[in-house]
């Protein structure tokens, strides 16, 4: 991990900035579940900040259920939504299911819009900073694989910022199910651009504390993705010469 790449922001306190940056590394998978963070003293030296700032940032991440700290063992990364006594039955049920993509999109349409509404009411200032930075990153000309990472991180962050670990857990399991579609041929450049516009609309509604609009924008986004997937699936059934003309 190149700790020198972590950003510095002026609108947040040093501990909040650190917690935002570390959280994004977790959301995007750069810090994987089970991975151990350097000790506080080492992190403070790597990031050129005080140990007090590191301690406060780690306390924030611990409160959010993103890390587990134990004396003598150190700090371990948890999966977003994971807790020491996570809802194992839910996880096992999702893991045992190999649903069709249409089924997963139907579930997303039920789950994600209300989550966006809740987050609009509960997101903290540092949460809004995180969401905005993820949106800005997706608006850049990035690879399909990088976009898939940011896309997943954005939706997981929204669930995380309900500050309800069960909602975050459910969203994480949905993300695991749809991961292949995020990196598949469905993920055209046109779809990424449309998703980025939708993501910004969702973020702006959340930042405005407009729960009804956030829910509406999230629902429109999921429905639009479902339509695009259906069109791509129809196109894949056509002869190759026709598919070549449809690919973007």
Automatic annotation (TrEMBL):
Keyword Kinase: no
UniProt-recorded Gene Ontology molecular function terms: DNA binding; DNA-binding transcription factor activity
Keywords: DNA-binding, Transcription, Transcription regulation
InterPro entries assigned to the protein according to its UniProt record, in alphabetical order: GntR_C, TF_FadR/GntR_C, Tscrpt_reg_HTH_GntR, WH-like_DNA-bd_sf, WH_DNA-bd_sf
SMART domains the record matches: FCD, HTH_GNTR
Location of the HTH gntR-type domain: 12-80
Domain of life per record: Bacteria
Pfam short name (any one): FCD
Name used for this protein in its record: GntR family transcriptional regulator
């Amino acid at each position: 991990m190149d700790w020198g790449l972590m950003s510095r922001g002026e609108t947040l306190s040093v501990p909040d900035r650190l917690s935002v940056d570390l959280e994004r590394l977790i959301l995007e998978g750069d810090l994987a579940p089970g991975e151990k963070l350097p000790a506080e003293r080492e992190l403070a030296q790597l990031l050129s900040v005080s140990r007090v700032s590191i301690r406060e940032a780690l306390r924030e991440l611990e409160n959010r259920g993103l890390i587990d700290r134990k004396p003598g063992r150190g700090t371990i990364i948890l999966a977003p939504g994971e807790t020491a006594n996570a809802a194992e039955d839910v996880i096992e049920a999702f893991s045992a299911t190999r649903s069709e993509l249409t089924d997963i999109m139907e579930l997303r349409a039920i789950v994600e819009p209300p989550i966006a509404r809740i987050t609009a009411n509960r997101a903290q200032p540092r949460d809004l900073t995180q969401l905005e930075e993820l949106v800005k990153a997706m608006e850049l000309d990035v690879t399909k694989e990088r976009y898939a990472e940011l896309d997943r991180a954005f939706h997981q962050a929204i669930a995380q910022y309900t500050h309800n670990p069960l909602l975050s857990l459910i969203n994480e399991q949905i993300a695991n199910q749809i991961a292949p579609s995020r990196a598949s041929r469905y993920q055209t450049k046109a779809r990424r651009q449309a998703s980025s516009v939708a993501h910004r609309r969702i973020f702006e509604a959340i930042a405005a504390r407009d729960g009804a609009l956030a829910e509406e924008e999230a629902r429109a986004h999921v429905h639009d993705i479902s339509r695009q997937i259906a069109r791509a699936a129809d196109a894949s059934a056509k002869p190759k010469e026709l598919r070549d003309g449809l690919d973007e």
